[in-house]
C-alpha cells in the first residue's frame, strides 16, 4: 500500500492509526519493524520512524527498550481524556515542546521569586526522586521528571500557567516517557538530565530568575533536539564558554 510522497510521515501515521482502529494491529500486538513498514508503504525509514514517534507520544503505542513497538490496549475510561487520544502530527509534538519551552522558562523565573519554603522542599523532593532513577536501568523516570516540572509550575503561582500544564498533563507525560526512554542504558545521558534539573533547582533556590529561566530553556531545548526538532539549536552553558 504505497503512499504519496507529500507529508509521508502524516500519511503513514493515518494508515497505522486505521490499522489499529480496525484491528489489523490489535492491542498488545507487535508492530512490524521499521524496515518492514518502510517496504510496505514504499518509503524510507525516516517517515516511518516519525509516525511511530507520534503514536508513542500519543499513548497508542509502547516502545520497549530492545523489544520493538507494541500496540497499547485503549480502555474506555481513557476516552474521558481527549488529549490522551488526540491524534497529533509530528509537527504538533514539536509545537507542544516549543510551547513548554516558552511557558516553563517563564514559570521557572516566577518560581525563583515567588516560591515558598514548602514549595522549594517539594521541588527538591522531586529532584531527589528523579536522582534515584539514574542508577536503575529499568526505571524510565518519567513520573519523577513530570513531578519536578509540575512542582516548579505550581511555585510560579500563576493560575493560568498551572491550569495549562494540568490540561496537557497526559500528553506531556507521554512525551516525557518517550524522550527519557532514549536514555535507558545510557548512564551519562541520564546523569546529564539530572544535572540540568539540578541547575534549575539551584537557581530557584538562589532566587535568581534569570538563571532559572536560562537553565530551564537549556534543558527543554536539549529535549527538543533529542526528539528531532531541527528548528532549534543547542544552547551552550555558561561554564562551557569559560
Automatic annotation (TrEMBL):
Gene3D superfamilies: GntR ligand-binding domain-like, Winged helix-like DNA-binding domain superfamily/Winged helix DNA-binding domain. Residues 6-74 form the HTH gntR-type domain. PROSITE patterns: HTH_GNTR. SUPFAM superfamilies: GntR ligand-binding domain-like, Winged helix' DNA-binding domain. It comes from Jeotgalibacillus proteolyticus. The keyword Transmembrane does not apply. Keywords: DNA-binding, Transcription, Transcription regulation. GO terms for molecular function: DNA binding; DNA-binding transcription factor activity. CDD domains: WHTH_GntR (cd07377). This is FadR family transcriptional regulator. InterPro entries: GntR_C (IPR011711), TF_FadR/GntR_C (IPR008920), Tscrpt_reg_HTH_GntR (IPR000524), WH-like_DNA-bd_sf (IPR036388), WH_DNA-bd_sf (IPR036390). PANTHER family: TRANSCRIPTIONAL REGULATOR, GNTR FAMILY, UXU OPERON TRANSCRIPTIONAL REGULATOR. The keyword ATP-binding does not apply.
